[in-house]
Amino acid sequence: MAGTLAGQPADEPGRRAAAAAAVRSVSAGAAKPRVAVVGAGIAGLVAARTLAEAGCKVTVFEKSRGPGGRCATRRSEVGPFHQGVAGFGAQSAAFRDTLAVWQAQGWAAADASGRWAGRPTMNALARHLAEGLALRTEHTVRPPQRNADGTWQLATAEHGTLPGTFDVLLLAVPAEQTRPLCADSPSLLQALAGVHGQPCWTLMLGWPPGVAAPALPDPARVAASPVLAEVVDVSALPGPAPTAGPGWQRWVLHATAAWSAAALEQRPEDAVVALLAALQNLTEPGPPVPAPAHAVAHRWRYAQVAEPAAAACGWDAALRLGSCGDAWGGGAAALAARLSAGPGPAAVPEGVERAWLSGRALAQAMLAGA
Question: Transmembrane residues, as ranges (predicted)?
């Protein structure tokens, strides 16, 4: 089955069958499984909401102060910045149908080119998906303990051992953070062994009213830059005018993965200088870039995955342990998504869509007793 990992030890069939029966009891009216979801990005929230709507008792743990992952919006005195994903595409029919529902509800919209974003800001997607869920922020989950009865005991860096146990543990964090948490599952470790997240430095710039920001650089010159991968005028994105910093021109610069990796451990203030210099190079021989009144750099250590695992998700039924996120969905799942979009060459869906597909697939695998 797509998204289900093989490779369990030969003495596991009995435990696997017992785990499957326990999960299938969700629809039979038995005790509802207690599910812990680690990570409140798109994948984790989609999995959590799907399971909660099926009657499971779900708790989501997130190490940051709020949900969203890279679908993030940073608020500032000069207005909001989409410091992560500025927009995303939709290939699969299922994801397009969901986006149409979100659009009707007013928290997603597409631009003229068909690129989607949250409305009024990118993190609206996570806020709405998290509504009604038991979400515990600032909880950095440590490697879990599996008890003799098969339940999971969690502890966090901030709060120590947490009260209660969980029947199911789902990991919706980058592969580098997943591997220490799924050490009990050889199959999950094997599937994620070659999956690595690429870093990205971003620079948020702001010019006040009355100061003319430079014209956006030629996309062809950006594409040829060894430093900058994208320059986005977030003040020009659709949506209501910000209540903070009205009239400010706001840009977000995304550095290339190669440059970000080479500069991974540099200080944010040094990243500001280097990325501003790269922007200046792209605008020459035109007028110099006026000094921004607001310049803040942010490092994403795991921004995107170049080569995701082939399956839609990872589900170890014997351990009741799963993994989802944009680290998955690079193989058959991507092909199925592309074929459902119509004729054309198969392509791996973008990270946001992979995360959505993966979170849904993992929840479905668990509910089916896969």
Answer: none
User: What is the predicted pLDDT for the residue at 191?
Assistant: 96
Instruction: Kindly state the tokens that stand for 253.
Output: 């610069």
Instruction: Please give the C-alpha separations between residue 272 and each of 216, 302, 332, in angstroms, as whole numbers.
Output: 18, 19, 40
- Comma-separated ranges of CATH 3.50.50.60 domains in the chain: 15-70+123-196+307-367
286-296 CB burial, b ≥16 within 10 A, e <16: eeebeebebbb
Domain with CATH 3.90.660.10 in the chain: 198-305
- pLDDT beyond 60 at 3: no
Tell me the pTM. 0.86
- The SS3 call for residue 233 is strand
Give the residue, 48 or 120, on which the prediction is more confident.
48
What is the mean predicted confidence (pLDDT) over 283-309? 91
The candidate with the shortest Cα–Cα distance to 303, out of 138, 84, 122, is: 84
Query: What tokens appear for 19 in the block?
Result: 């785990």
Architecture of the CATH domain 15-70+123-196+307-367: 3-Layer(bba) Sandwich (3.50)
Torsion of CA 44, 46, 150, 308, to 10 degrees: -60
- The third-level CATH classification (topology) of the domain covering 198-305 is Polyamine Oxidase; Chain A, domain 2 (3.90.660)
| 118 strand-pairing partners | 108
Q: If you average pLDDT over each of 136-150, 245-259, 320-334, 343-357, which comes out highest?
A: 136-150
pLDDT tens per residue across span 45-98: 999 999 999 999 999 999 999 999 888 888 888 888 888 888 899 989 999 999
Question: Which of helix, strand or coil describes residue 62?
Answer: strand
Tokens at 223, concatenated: 């594409």
- For residues 185-200, one letter each, b for 16 or more C-beta atoms within 10 angstroms of the residue's C-beta and e for the rest, the string is bebbbebbeebebbbb
How buried is 149 (Cβ within 10 angstroms: 0-12 exposed, 13-18 middle, 19+ buried)? exposed
- The whole-angstrom separation of Cα 286 and Cα 215 is 10
